[in-house]
Specification:
The protein is mainly alpha-helical and 380 residues long. It is 44% helix and 11% strand. Strands 1-2-3 form a three-stranded antiparallel β-sheet, covered by helices on one side. A three-stranded antiparallel β-sheet has the order 4-5-8. A two-stranded antiparallel sheet has the order 6-7. It is elongated, with a radius of gyration of 31 Å.
């Protein structure tokens, strides 16, 4: 396809500044030539020419000359995120690039993408498809393609919920903590009593604990050896400290020099990898815990116990820093006595005498207009 031409017009704007225009032929040499002018800069004219030529190419069925690989490179160049987030996105997109990297964008077909999706392992199928959708959605916004071929006609259900294995009781956790000893037992009990992610409780500092209001503030997390603060002040979570969590903190002692709440023996950040291999697994075996739990299952334990205690999913989502949808999808089924708890609350309310029930304030109930007269005004 032709490239068109951008040029400066002889006439000037009212203020004497130059005026630019572009022109191109609709079907090669000898065909009709279109010209558009009135642009205040060469760049504006060039961008308008690019849009016009792109539309012409799509009308002729040849579309954008950009390949998927080139689109990904352009997208990543302006993608503003943490390095580990970009690394994961690159890793996911590499799966699509191996199959479609050399294809021009209009050549991507939904049925081929749907077939490719099934070649991805179930553990990464949803995320890999979402990554491709994310990049192609930007191509739609940029006007390179009319629709997203990775979305229309391509189903992408989330992977099946994996079975969570919370601990069975606080008695079981107490026995495990006893096996771990005074250094590693308290962090385990604290994690199960607050639901913090491992990276969050490992990054806690002593100043994050407010014993007076009985909350711990989650301001940062340790990820891949780097400490990341929350994006905004609104992202800081205040998690309630139940008595078990406070008792675990009391076991730590107050004469430590490290500012970290749960430091390693040398005073640095908690070494989770070393903890798993040397202490976590042997302590579970000694306590007779079957099947063996992961450290992350302490978070699942908090969610399960909280729901069974009657904490609402709304409150739980705030405490855990997770969406309501995720809470319901991953943990809602674990609260097996949730219905019984709700029935008890409803029955208790039904037994309240009428005199104790607050009446509805009808002033907050919108009234539908009965009719409109000719003399209706706009007064209050």
């Amino acid at each position: 396809m032709q490239q068109g031409q951008v040029f400066e017009l002889k006439k000037r704007a009212v203020d004497g500044s130059p005026v630019w225009a572009y022109r191109y032929r609709t079907d090669g040499p000898g065909s009709r030539r279109l010209q558009r002018g009135g642009f205040s800069s060469e760049r504006d004219a060039a961008e308008a020419l690019g849009r016009a030529l792109e539309l012409l190419r799509r009308q002729k069925g040849v579309g954008s000359t950009l390949t998927l690989k080139e689109l990904v490179e352009e997208y990543l160049a302006q993608y503003d995120a943490e390095p580990e987030t970009i690394d994961k996105l690159c890793w996911l997109l590499a799966k699509a690039l191996r199959a479609f990297g050399g294809r021009r964008l209009p050549e991507l077909r939904s049925q081929e993408i749907a077939a490719w999706r099934m070649t991805i392992s179930p553990g990464h199928r949803f995320e890999a498809t979402q990554a491709l959708r994310q990049v192609l959605a930007r191509a739609v916004v940029w006007g390179m393609i009319d629709s997203n071929p990775a979305k229309q006609g391509v189903d992408n259900p989330q992977r099946r919920r994996t079975e969570k294995r919370p601990f069975e009781s606080w008695a079981q956790l107490d026995e495990l903590a006893g096996r771990l000893g005074p250094r590693y037992g308290p962090p385990v009990l604290f994690a199960a009593a607050t639901g913090l992610r491992p990276g969050e409780w490992m990054a806690l500092e002593q100043r994050d604990v407010d014993r007076q209001t009985r909350v711990v503030y989650v301001r940062r997390a340790l990820r891949n050896g780097r400490v990341k603060s929350t994006k905004t002040d609104g992202s800081i979570r205040a998690v309630p400290l139940q008595a078990i969590a406070l008792a675990a903190l009391d076991q730590l002692g107050a004469d430590r020099e490290s500012q970290l709440l749960f430091p390693s023996p040398r005073g640095g950040y908690f070494d989770l990898h070393n903890f798993r291999n040397r202490y976590w697994k042997p302590a579970q075996i000694a306590a007779g815990i079957v099947p063996l739990r992961r450290v992350y299952d302490l978070r699942h334990t908090f969610a399960t116990f909280a729901l069974r205690a009657g904490i609402s999913t709304f409150d739980l989502s705030r405490y855990m820093g997770a969406s309501l949808t995720m809470i319901d999808r991953h943990y809602g089924h674990l609260a097996r006595d949730g219905r019984e708890h709700a029935i008890g609350l409803l029955d208790g309310y039904a037994d309240i005498k009428a005199a104790d029930v607050q009446a509805l304030d009808v002033r907050w109930t919108p009234q539908l207009p009965v009719g409109a007269g000719q003399d209706n005004g706009n007064g209050a």
